[in-house]
Amino acid sequence: MASGKSESIELVHQDDTPRNATEVYLENIRLREQCQTSDAGGAASGMSLADSMKLLIKDNKDIKYSMRKEKKQRRWSWICVGLVVAFQFVLILAIVSLAGVAVYRENKKPAASQEPQAPMAMLQPLPVNPLQTSDSGEPAPLSKYYFNVGPRQDYLLQECQGPQLKRSFPDMDYALLGYNVLKGYPLAVGHDPGFTLPIFSADYSAGHMTADCRYSVPKGIILIPDVSCITSFSSDVVQTSYELSKSLSVSAHASGGGWGVSFSASAGYKESSSQVATGESVFIISRASCNYYYMKLLQRDAPPFHPVFLDWIVELNQTEHDDVYIDFIENYGTHFLTEVKFGASFTYEHKMTTSSFKEETQKGVNVAVSASYSGLFSVGGGFSMDSSQKEAASSFQKKVTTRTITIGAAPPANGDAMTWASTVKESPVPMSYDLQSIEDLFSETFMDGDYMKQYGIDYQRIKTKIGETKQKYCARLRDQGLVDVCAELSPGLVMPKTRLYGHFATTKTQTKGQCIDECFKRTSCVAMTFCEGCGDTACYMYKEEMRFRAEKDDDWTSMFILPEIENLLVLANTDIKSNNRRSIESDEEVTTFDSCQSHCLRDIYCAAFTFCECPEQKEKCTLYSEKDMSLVRMVGMTTYFMSPRKQREEIGIAATTAAPGNETTGSN
Question: Which of 220, 339, 625, 646 could form a disulfide with 302 if both were Cys (CB 3.0 to 4.6 A apart)?
Answer without folding.
Answer: 220
